[in-house]
Write a structure and sequence with these properties.
binds thiamine diphosphate; single chain; alpha/beta; 562 residues
Length: 562
């Protein structure tokens, strides 16, 4: 089984230990030369953290990481994270151990049933041979769009069976369907015939897809819209073609995982996934049976006509479109494209300088305030990280989203976006997952960490320390579940009973939580609380230097609510 994981290129397996997978765990830590490398066993203090690590890793790399779960109870602890990764269309490979013979309460006939509504595929193999095939299939299902977590339940007896001379089946990657040759020809022709084509890029699956979207935009000289400030795997934000361009009357818009274009290629939707069983989890406004890919007219200006959406994976379609564009290209077109591209680049550059100036002006408000403004954290961090290969792994919407305008999101993994399904307890473990990816790639992870969010499963700080991960955590410590404080205060106001008790059940005071001490308890270098804004930048500098050395660091910053 471990050889199968190695063949798949799985880098990490995160788990909280359990007797239902001691067979597999022993092989993970002892098999291979050197042992415990690719995959490396990552020690998790909570199953929810293990799966959210895989979620963060998956978003940073576009590849699955593995989490091992112990029996019924491990799956139950992991359930929210599985749901969240599923909702975020992020691949993850989950292996659940089952042991009917040890503790009856930890076993069930259909263990994956508990999470079947929000896993993409599962299997409970009956033999060792079947287990190997099931792991490979689970991997392939996870990375085939719509991507998502998959689960293999493996009995302890199968894990302990001698492999003997059994051959590990050769791994066959999946074939992911793209548009057909005729459609590719037509899209390429339309892009080349258009006077002012546009490409809008949503979230692709892998860095390779991002690279190809750049190649296509450059080939046809299209101004481009990105989703890189909302999440990973989109067009580089500061690419010269990224922006509205010199002329905003677009005569053809190609959407790549972005509905609303004249033609949009949008991979299979969540709805398809949610209909996997009759339970059909409905959540967050997604109604079973209603396609997510319905919006029209958003790609163009001035009420562009409703476009055509082709339900097909954009990334798998790009090679054929690129080939066709190259084939149909003429020297005349090439000259016109170069000219248009240069005009777009100049206009985008000018617009960018204007927008940055306005953004900075706005951030002067409350610059010297105590508690510290959330904008100041992002402004002070930027000069420290701008020449680093950084990943902002935590969602930034609760701390003002200032990165969107102030930082340059030029890599497929610059910003990993929101929680996926709005589930708290995400920022730290997702950052640890991203930092696992970052460790072998010489990257550094920034985690602007909401205080409420950290307290669901803070033990993940120990995992970061134990595995020496390059992660800087900056606490957005507003000493509340501020989102909920606002809702309760609003309710108090609506009912006219006064807001002075709105903090009850929504704030983290009496006592305040000391995050420096919390980090220290887990062995992590930390400082704070910092309430004086002048002290912020030197602390960030110390923290980043430490994180880059593989010593994770936490800075407790007392902040404005949002
Ligand atoms: C698992 C889970 N439980 C409860 C909630 C409800 N909820 C939404 S926002 C929020 C507050 C989060 O507090 P914090 O992370 O400190 O961010 P802040 O709102 O203070 O910016 C809560 C509890 C949730 N989204 N997820």
């Amino acid at each position: 089984m471990v050889q199968v994981l190695k063949d798949l290129g799985i880098e990490y397996v995160a788990a909280n230990p359990g007797s239902s997978f001691e067979g597999l765990q022993e092989s993970l830590i002892n098999y291979g030369t050197p042992p415990n490398v690719k995959p490396e066993f990552i020690t998790a203090l909570h199953e929810e953290s293990a799966v959210t690590m895989a979620h963060g890793y998956g978003k940073a790399t576009g590849k699955p990481m593995c989490a091992l779960l112990h029996g019924t109870i491990g799956i139950q602890h992991a359930a929210m994270s599985i749901y969240q990764a599923y909702y975020d269309k992020t691949p993850a490979l989950l292996i659940a151990g089952r042991d009917f013979g040890f503790i009856a309460a930890h076993s069930a006939n259909d263990m994956a049933g508990m999470v079947r509504s929000y896993t993409k595929w599962d299997a409970t193999p009956k033999t060792l041979e079947e287990s190997l095939v099931a792991i490979q299939r689970a991997y392939n299902e996870a990375i085939t769009p719509p991507c998502g977590p998959t689960m293999v339940v493996i009995d302890i007896d199968l894990q302990k069976e001698e492999a003997g001379t059994m051959k590990v089946p050769a791994y066959q990657p999946p074939t992911i369907a793209g548009i057909d040759a005729g459609q590719a020809r037509e899209i390429a022709k339309t892009l080349l015939d258009a006077q002012n084509p546009r490409i809008t890029v949503g979230r692709l699956r892998t860095p390779d897809g991002v690279r190809q979207s750049v190649e296509l935009a450059e080939l046809v000289g299209a101004s481009t819209a990105t989703a890189a400030t909302n999440g990973p795997m989109s067009f580089p934000q500061r690419h010269p073609l990224c922006g509205p361009g010199a002329n905003t009357s677009y005569d053809f818009t190609l959407g790549l995982e972005q509905p609303g274009g004249t033609v949009s290629l949008v991979g299979p939707s969540l709805t398809t996934l949610l209909s996997r069983d009759s339970a059909n989890i409905g959540f967050g406004g997604i109604t079973p049976g209603v396609s997510r890919a319905g919006g029209a007219g958003r790609g163009g200006r001035g009420g562009a006509p409703a476009g055509r959406t082709i339900e097909i994976d954009a990334e798998a379609s790009l090679p054929a479109i690129i080939d066709e564009v190259k084939r149909q290209m003429s020297p005349d077109k090439q000259r016109a494209i170069a000219d248009r591209g240069a005009k777009h680049a100049a206009a985008n550059q000018e617009a960018r300088i204007d927008a940055l100036q306005r953004a900075l002006d706005q951030r002067r408000a409350g610059w010297d305030s105590t508690p510290i403004s959330t904008a100041r954290i992002y402004v002070e961090l930027w000069p420290l990280i701008m020449n680093e290969d950084w990943i902002l792994a935590s969602p930034s919407n609760f701390s003002g989203g200032h990165n969107a305008q102030l930082w340059d999101h030029n890599k497929p993994y610059s910003y990993l976006g929101g929680q996926g399904a709005g589930g708290m307890g995400y920022g730290a473990p997702a950052s640890v997952g991203a930092a696992l990816a970052a460790k072998s790639r010489n990257q550094v992870v920034i985690n602007v960490q909401c205080d409420g969010d950290l307290n669901y499963a803070p033990g993940v700080l120990w995992t970061a320390q134990h595995h020496q991960l390059p992660m800087l955590t900056v606490m957005h410590n507003n000493r509340a579940w501020h989102q909920e404080l606002m809702f309760v205060e609003y309710m108090c106001g609506v009912r006219g009973r006064g807001t002075d008790r709105g903090h009850i059940g929504t704030s983290l005071r009496d006592p305040f939580i000391d995050y420096r001490m919390m980090a220290a308890a887990y062995g992590m270098a930390a400082e704070g609380p910092i309430a004086d804004p002048v002290k912020l930048a030197p602390a960030l500098k110390r923290g980043l230097a430490s994180a880059k050395r593989g010593q994770p660091y936490l800075i407790d910053v007392i902040t404005q609510p949002r």
